[in-house]
Write a structure and sequence with these properties.
Blueprint lengths: L16 H22 L2 E2 H7 L4 H13 L2 E2 L7 E4 L1
Antiparallel strand pairs: 1-3, 2-3
Helix pairs in contact: 1-3
Amino acid sequence: MSSCDRRLRSYRNGKTFDQCKQIAEALNPDFKKIIAANGKILWSEILEKVDHDELIYKLTLKYLRRDGYDIGNWKIPEVKPS
């Protein structure tokens, strides 16, 4: 019985999960600069910057939370320093 290896599954534009993680990590310093300058960044701005790639968007929010930022919620869709 054969099964798919989920670690090698292609996501949007043929990227693997590991490639998406690397892209999200690479984008975070830019988002941190925007947050430092403006005090916040909206979820919609992040979604536009990641070219509407949902996986990279979610990973970016996850990594911002990991780094100590308040990522908000559905009522307050913005990321700001904690």
